[in-house]
Design a protein that fits this description.
Layout: E1 3-4, E2 11-14, H1 24-51, H2 58-75, H3 78-87, E3 91-92, H4 94-127, H5 132-135, H6 138-164, E4 168-169, E5 171-174, H7 181-186, H8 193-226, H9 231-260, H10 268-292, H11 295-303, H12 307-320
Parallel strand pairs: 2-5
Antiparallel strand pairs: 1-4, 2-3
Helix pairs in contact: 1-2, 1-3, 1-10, 2-4, 2-10, 4-6, 4-8, 4-9, 6-8, 8-9, 9-10
């Protein structure tokens, strides 16, 4: 097909995780369950934090913000994927692809920055406990969330505008289940050098730098905790941070792996599977990681009528899964 500019593009084709017809019902059912669990679990976190005055603290404010970001993050990709499987169509319009990519980048970057903010919050709470309430005041907490949102929007706007300058064929096949930035740029007919440079710069700025900051924060936390004489206090401190570290490890390792390896030749299927880990699995696991290891959240959920039964049923089903 002839290369054309963006005004001549009719449609993109999302090839999905597999083109095998017999696997489509399995993929549909699996991703539908994961999406519903993600939305319900994160909504319960938001409801628990907002309804319990004891949880109106910086840590839980950031956790509720992360839950909201996770719901939006997953909702930018999974519903369209499920719709395509249900209708047996792989089509997404050029405008639809750019819109999906824009919001995916917004909420993905917001997730990224919020995880960094939560690491800073734990650093202040454990390393400077006497000054915690003064440093992490409501004004600063609101400002941190607002700034993280602005950074995410500006990054997404820049990346999307950079894609608009590219030329594509009239029909583009994307070997993925959504319009991920590196996959879309890789399908362009025009020179993508500037796009690649901007993308790698953003990876360092919003990926490598936050991860380095998080690791530094937790190195200081470990050093401070080791000086605590009480074994119970040590356990409480490490338990509080362990859940955050598990989310950070899964999110950053898979997302950085996908984008840093985009320049190297690799299987499109392996890239799509890795993307599932940080776009679907991490947002789904967040409510379970934070609530099952957190007495305050579990206590708040028990105060909500009907929620313990529903949430307990979800946990029980997950435990039964092989």
């Amino acid at each position: 097909m002839e290369a054309d500019n963006d005004t001549g593009i009719s449609q993109f084709l999302l090839l999905g995780l597999s083109e095998e017809p017999e696997l489509q019902p399995i993929i549909f059912g699996l991703f539908l369950c994961m999406y519903l669990i993600t939305v319900l679990g994160n909504l319960l976190i938001i409801l628990a934090v907002s309804s319990d005055s004891h949880l109106h603290t910086p840590m839980y404010f950031f956790l509720a913000s992360l839950s909201f970001a996770d719901i939006c993050f997953t909702s930018t990709t999974i519903p369209k994927m499920l719709w395509n499987i249900q209708t047996q169509s792989q089509v997404i319009t050029y405008a639809g692809c750019l819109t999906q990519m824009y919001f995916f980048l917004v909420f993905g970057a917001w997730d990224d920055v919020l995880l960094t903010v939560m690491a800073y919050d734990r650093f202040v709470a454990i390393c400077h406990p006497l000054h915690y309430t003064v440093i992490m005041n409501p004004r600063l907490c609101g400002l941190l969330v607002l700034v993280s949102w602005v950074i995410s929007v500006l990054n997404s706007l820049l990346q999307s505008l950079m894609v608009l300058r590219l030329s594509f064929r009239t029909k583009v096949e994307i070997p993925h289940f959504f319009c991920e930035l590196n996959q879309v740029v890789g399908q362009a007919c025009s020179d993508t050098f500037l796009n690649d440079m901007v993308m790698y710069f953003v990876i360092v700025l919003l990926g490598v730098a936050p991860l380095a900051g998080i690791l530094y924060s937790y190195s200081k936390i470990v050093f401070s905790v080791c000086r605590i004489s009480s074994a119970q206090s040590k356990y409480k401190a490490f338990s509080t941070c362990a859940s955050h570290l598990s989310v950070v490890s899964l999110f950053f390792c898979t997302s950085l792996g996908v984008y840093l390896s985009s320049a190297a030749p690799q299987s499109s299927h392996s890239s799509a599977v890795a993307s599932v880990m940080y776009t679907v699995v991490t947002p789904m696991l967040n409510p379970f990681i934070y609530s099952l290891r957190n007495r305050d959240i579990k206590r708040a959920l028990k105060r909500i009528t009907g929620v313990p039964v529903m949430y307990g049923a979800i946990v029980l089903r997950l435990k039964r899964c092989p």
